[in-house]
Amino acid sequence: MTAFVLGTLAIYYYWFFTQPVRRDPAEARRHTFLRWSRFFKWVAGMRLVVNGTPPPPPFFLVSNHLSYTDIAVLRLAAEGVFVAKQDIESWPVAGKIIANMGTVFIDRENRRDIPRAGELIDARLDSGDGVIIFPEGTSTRGEEVLPFNSSFFEYAARRNIAVYYAAVSYSTPPGELPADTVCWWDDISFFAHMFRLFSVKSWTATVTFGSEPITNTDRKLLARELHERVTEAFTPVE
Predict the structure, then answer these.
(1) 45, 72 in Cβ contact below 8 A?
(2) Omega before 58 cis (within 30°)?
(3) Secondary structure (3-state) at 220
(4) How would you classify the pairing of strands 130-133 and 46-51?
(5) Fewest C-beta atoms under 10 Å: which of 63, 83, 114, 190?
Protein backbone atom coordinates (compact mmCIF):
# COMPACT_ATOMS: atom_id res chain seq x y z
CA MET A 1 0.00 0.00 0.00
CA THR A 2 2.77 2.42 0.92
CA ALA A 3 4.67 1.71 -2.29
CA PHE A 4 1.51 2.17 -4.36
CA VAL A 5 0.57 5.51 -2.79
CA LEU A 6 4.09 6.97 -2.88
CA GLY A 7 4.75 5.69 -6.40
CA THR A 8 1.47 7.08 -7.69
CA LEU A 9 2.14 10.50 -6.18
CA ALA A 10 5.71 10.54 -7.51
CA ILE A 11 4.60 9.73 -11.07
CA TYR A 12 1.77 12.26 -10.96
CA TYR A 13 3.76 15.14 -9.52
CA TYR A 14 6.64 14.57 -11.93
CA TRP A 15 4.10 14.97 -14.74
CA PHE A 16 2.46 17.96 -13.03
CA PHE A 17 5.64 19.98 -12.52
CA THR A 18 7.19 19.17 -15.92
CA GLN A 19 3.98 19.77 -17.87
CA PRO A 20 4.69 23.47 -18.63
CA VAL A 21 7.86 22.59 -20.56
CA ARG A 22 6.46 19.66 -22.50
CA ARG A 23 6.34 20.09 -26.28
CA ASP A 24 3.32 17.79 -26.57
CA PRO A 25 1.20 17.88 -23.36
CA ALA A 26 -1.27 15.27 -24.65
CA GLU A 27 1.50 12.79 -25.41
CA ALA A 28 3.07 13.48 -22.01
CA ARG A 29 -0.25 12.71 -20.35
CA ARG A 30 -0.59 9.45 -22.28
CA HIS A 31 2.95 8.41 -21.36
CA THR A 32 2.36 9.24 -17.68
CA PHE A 33 -0.83 7.17 -17.61
CA LEU A 34 1.03 4.27 -19.23
CA ARG A 35 3.93 4.62 -16.78
CA TRP A 36 1.51 4.51 -13.84
CA SER A 37 -0.24 1.43 -15.30
CA ARG A 38 3.09 -0.37 -15.62
CA PHE A 39 3.94 0.60 -12.05
CA PHE A 40 0.61 -0.74 -10.80
CA LYS A 41 1.16 -4.00 -12.68
CA TRP A 42 4.51 -4.42 -10.97
CA VAL A 43 3.49 -3.45 -7.44
CA ALA A 44 0.29 -5.55 -7.58
CA GLY A 45 2.01 -8.69 -8.86
CA MET A 46 -0.18 -8.74 -11.96
CA ARG A 47 0.44 -10.75 -15.13
CA LEU A 48 -1.28 -9.57 -18.30
CA VAL A 49 -2.55 -11.75 -21.15
CA VAL A 50 -4.02 -10.10 -24.26
CA ASN A 51 -6.08 -12.08 -26.75
CA GLY A 52 -6.98 -10.55 -30.09
CA THR A 53 -5.85 -7.22 -31.48
CA PRO A 54 -6.55 -3.95 -29.66
CA PRO A 55 -7.97 -1.19 -31.87
CA PRO A 56 -5.61 1.62 -32.88
CA PRO A 57 -6.52 5.04 -31.45
CA PRO A 58 -8.70 6.93 -31.85
CA PHE A 59 -11.40 4.39 -30.98
CA PHE A 60 -14.59 3.97 -28.93
CA LEU A 61 -14.46 0.77 -26.86
CA VAL A 62 -16.70 -0.91 -24.27
CA SER A 63 -15.80 -3.53 -21.68
CA ASN A 64 -17.29 -5.34 -18.73
CA HIS A 65 -16.27 -3.94 -15.34
CA LEU A 66 -14.83 -5.93 -12.43
CA SER A 67 -12.72 -3.48 -10.44
CA TYR A 68 -10.66 -0.30 -10.55
CA THR A 69 -7.86 -2.65 -11.63
CA ASP A 70 -9.56 -2.71 -15.04
CA ILE A 71 -8.20 0.80 -15.61
CA ALA A 72 -4.56 -0.25 -15.53
CA VAL A 73 -5.31 -3.51 -17.36
CA LEU A 74 -7.05 -1.86 -20.30
CA ARG A 75 -4.56 1.02 -20.46
CA LEU A 76 -1.73 -1.50 -20.77
CA ALA A 77 -3.61 -3.32 -23.52
CA ALA A 78 -4.85 -0.28 -25.49
CA GLU A 79 -4.08 3.44 -25.58
CA GLY A 80 -7.18 5.17 -24.27
CA VAL A 81 -8.83 7.34 -21.64
CA PHE A 82 -11.92 6.44 -19.63
CA VAL A 83 -15.47 7.61 -19.05
CA ALA A 84 -16.29 7.54 -15.32
CA LYS A 85 -19.17 8.46 -13.03
CA GLN A 86 -19.26 12.08 -11.89
CA ASP A 87 -18.78 11.49 -8.15
CA ILE A 88 -15.25 10.10 -8.68
CA GLU A 89 -14.12 13.61 -9.61
CA SER A 90 -14.82 14.72 -6.01
CA TRP A 91 -12.56 12.07 -4.43
CA PRO A 92 -9.77 13.73 -2.40
CA VAL A 93 -6.45 13.81 -4.33
CA ALA A 94 -7.36 10.76 -6.47
CA GLY A 95 -10.18 12.64 -8.22
CA LYS A 96 -7.78 15.34 -9.39
CA ILE A 97 -5.23 12.79 -10.61
CA ILE A 98 -7.89 10.81 -12.49
CA ALA A 99 -9.27 13.98 -14.10
CA ASN A 100 -5.83 15.12 -15.25
CA MET A 101 -5.26 11.81 -17.00
CA GLY A 102 -7.96 12.69 -19.53
CA THR A 103 -10.98 11.03 -17.89
CA VAL A 104 -14.43 12.18 -19.06
CA PHE A 105 -16.88 12.39 -16.16
CA ILE A 106 -20.60 11.92 -16.70
CA ASP A 107 -23.65 12.22 -14.45
CA ARG A 108 -25.46 8.99 -15.30
CA GLU A 109 -28.57 10.11 -13.44
CA ASN A 110 -28.99 13.20 -15.63
CA ARG A 111 -29.71 12.60 -19.31
CA ARG A 112 -29.12 16.29 -20.00
CA ASP A 113 -25.47 15.74 -19.14
CA ILE A 114 -25.01 13.38 -22.09
CA PRO A 115 -24.51 16.17 -24.72
CA ARG A 116 -21.79 17.78 -22.57
CA ALA A 117 -20.03 14.44 -22.10
CA GLY A 118 -20.42 13.76 -25.83
CA GLU A 119 -18.56 16.98 -26.65
CA LEU A 120 -15.71 15.94 -24.37
CA ILE A 121 -15.59 12.49 -25.96
CA ASP A 122 -15.44 14.17 -29.37
CA ALA A 123 -12.52 16.26 -28.15
CA ARG A 124 -10.67 13.16 -26.89
CA LEU A 125 -11.21 11.33 -30.19
CA ASP A 126 -10.16 14.39 -32.19
CA SER A 127 -6.93 14.60 -30.17
CA GLY A 128 -6.11 10.99 -31.05
CA ASP A 129 -7.18 9.25 -27.85
CA GLY A 130 -9.17 6.06 -27.58
CA VAL A 131 -12.22 6.30 -25.30
CA ILE A 132 -13.19 3.38 -23.04
CA ILE A 133 -16.49 2.98 -21.17
CA PHE A 134 -17.99 0.45 -18.75
CA PRO A 135 -21.68 0.28 -19.71
CA GLU A 136 -22.68 -2.08 -16.88
CA GLY A 137 -22.50 1.04 -14.70
CA THR A 138 -20.93 -0.81 -11.76
CA SER A 139 -18.21 -3.31 -10.99
CA THR A 140 -19.18 -6.95 -10.41
CA ARG A 141 -17.96 -10.20 -8.88
CA GLY A 142 -17.32 -11.57 -12.35
CA GLU A 143 -19.95 -14.31 -12.45
CA GLU A 144 -21.64 -12.76 -15.50
CA VAL A 145 -21.80 -9.60 -17.59
CA LEU A 146 -24.64 -7.38 -16.40
CA PRO A 147 -26.99 -5.83 -18.99
CA PHE A 148 -25.55 -2.71 -20.61
CA ASN A 149 -27.16 0.65 -19.89
CA SER A 150 -28.22 1.93 -23.31
CA SER A 151 -27.74 5.58 -22.28
CA PHE A 152 -23.99 5.02 -22.59
CA PHE A 153 -24.50 4.39 -26.31
CA GLU A 154 -26.55 7.45 -27.19
CA TYR A 155 -23.42 9.29 -28.30
CA ALA A 156 -22.19 6.44 -30.52
CA ALA A 157 -25.64 5.71 -31.97
CA ARG A 158 -26.33 9.34 -32.91
CA ARG A 159 -23.02 9.63 -34.74
CA ASN A 160 -23.08 6.07 -36.11
CA ILE A 161 -19.65 5.45 -34.59
CA ALA A 162 -18.10 1.98 -34.79
CA VAL A 163 -17.87 0.59 -31.25
CA TYR A 164 -15.14 -1.89 -30.38
CA TYR A 165 -15.46 -4.26 -27.43
CA ALA A 166 -13.33 -6.23 -24.99
CA ALA A 167 -13.86 -8.63 -22.09
CA VAL A 168 -11.75 -8.54 -18.91
CA SER A 169 -11.33 -11.49 -16.56
CA TYR A 170 -9.08 -12.40 -13.62
CA SER A 171 -7.56 -15.64 -12.35
CA THR A 172 -5.19 -16.72 -9.59
CA PRO A 173 -2.84 -19.73 -9.40
CA PRO A 174 -3.56 -22.80 -7.24
CA GLY A 175 -3.00 -22.12 -3.55
CA GLU A 176 -3.59 -18.39 -3.94
CA LEU A 177 -6.63 -16.42 -2.77
CA PRO A 178 -9.68 -16.78 -5.06
CA ALA A 179 -9.75 -14.58 -8.17
CA ASP A 180 -12.86 -12.70 -7.08
CA THR A 181 -10.63 -11.09 -4.43
CA VAL A 182 -9.40 -8.87 -7.25
CA CYS A 183 -12.96 -7.83 -8.13
CA TRP A 184 -14.44 -4.92 -6.16
CA TRP A 185 -17.97 -6.22 -5.76
CA ASP A 186 -18.77 -6.24 -2.05
CA ASP A 187 -19.58 -3.34 0.24
CA ILE A 188 -16.13 -2.28 1.41
CA SER A 189 -14.20 0.93 0.90
CA PHE A 190 -11.67 1.54 -1.86
CA PHE A 191 -8.68 1.39 0.51
CA ALA A 192 -10.01 -1.66 2.35
CA HIS A 193 -10.33 -3.48 -0.96
CA MET A 194 -6.90 -2.34 -2.11
CA PHE A 195 -5.36 -3.65 1.12
CA ARG A 196 -7.03 -6.99 0.38
CA LEU A 197 -5.88 -6.88 -3.25
CA PHE A 198 -2.25 -6.45 -2.23
CA SER A 199 -2.51 -9.56 -0.09
CA VAL A 200 -2.80 -11.54 -3.36
CA LYS A 201 0.81 -12.31 -4.29
CA SER A 202 0.14 -12.99 -7.98
CA TRP A 203 -2.82 -12.87 -10.31
CA THR A 204 -3.50 -12.82 -14.03
CA ALA A 205 -5.59 -10.31 -15.96
CA THR A 206 -6.86 -11.48 -19.34
CA VAL A 207 -8.21 -9.06 -21.93
CA THR A 208 -9.97 -10.45 -25.00
CA PHE A 209 -10.64 -8.01 -27.83
CA GLY A 210 -13.43 -8.54 -30.34
CA SER A 211 -12.52 -8.99 -33.97
CA GLU A 212 -14.88 -6.43 -35.52
CA PRO A 213 -16.54 -3.24 -34.21
CA ILE A 214 -20.33 -2.87 -34.10
CA THR A 215 -22.41 0.01 -35.50
CA ASN A 216 -26.10 0.75 -35.03
CA THR A 217 -28.07 3.99 -34.94
CA ASP A 218 -30.48 2.52 -32.36
CA ARG A 219 -28.77 2.79 -28.95
CA LYS A 220 -30.83 -0.01 -27.39
CA LEU A 221 -30.02 -2.44 -30.18
CA LEU A 222 -26.39 -1.35 -30.09
CA ALA A 223 -26.24 -1.97 -26.33
CA ARG A 224 -27.89 -5.37 -26.70
CA GLU A 225 -25.57 -6.58 -29.46
CA LEU A 226 -22.44 -5.38 -27.69
CA HIS A 227 -23.58 -7.07 -24.49
CA GLU A 228 -23.98 -10.33 -26.39
CA ARG A 229 -20.51 -10.01 -27.93
CA VAL A 230 -18.80 -9.17 -24.63
CA THR A 231 -20.61 -12.04 -22.90
CA GLU A 232 -19.39 -14.45 -25.59
CA ALA A 233 -15.79 -13.29 -25.07
CA PHE A 234 -15.99 -13.23 -21.27
CA THR A 235 -14.56 -15.95 -19.03
CA PRO A 236 -16.31 -15.97 -15.61
CA VAL A 237 -14.09 -15.26 -12.61
CA GLU A 238 -13.77 -18.35 -10.41
Answers:
(1) no
(2) yes
(3) helix
(4) unpaired
(5) 190
DSSP run (H or E) holding 64: none
Which has the closest alpha carbon to 74: 125, 132, 123?
Answer: 132
Spatial strand order of the sheet with 80-85 comes to 46-51, 203-209, 163-171, 60-63, 130-133, 80-85, 104-106
Neighbouring C-alpha atoms within 13 Å toward the C-beta of 6: 3
Phi–psi pair at 32, nearest 5 degrees:
-65, -45
pLDDT, one tens digit per residue, over 180-229 is: 999 999 889 888 999 999 999 999 999 999 999 999 999 999 999 999 99
Q: What is the pLDDT of residues 54-110, one digit of tens each?
A: 999 999 999 999 999 999 999 999 999 999 888 888 888 888 999 999 999 988 677
Please list the helix, strand and coil fractions of the chain in percent, rounded to the nearest 5, in that order: 45, 15, 35
Stated as kind and residue range, the H or E segment containing 208 is strand 203-209
Average pLDDT, the chain: 93
- Yes or no: say if 135 and 152 are a contact pair by the CB < 8 Å rule: yes
For the entire predicted model, the pTM comes to 0.93
